[in-house]
Amino acid sequence: MKDRENLLSKKDLAIALDMSSTTLWRVLKNNEAVAKQNKLKTCPIHRNYSSGRKYYLADEVQNWLDYINDFELKENS
Length: 77
Prior knowledge:
Blueprint: H1 10-16, H2 21-37, E1 46-47, E2 54-55, H3 58-76
Antiparallel strand pairs: 1-2
Helix pairs in contact: 1-2, 2-3
């Protein structure tokens, strides 16, 4: 597991990415649908055990969001 002290809950992730928790939820949900539809990599999620609470690393999620955005821009142009 990477940097346990840097793991963020979804609420803390929203603060780290400078957006509201509702906006973050919608962005993640929409981008996960795009990733699944186009067989791209999924959002990086960390858990302490298999059925545990989800945690995120801000830099990994930001890189994933950029990856999905780049894909959508290439697809639409």
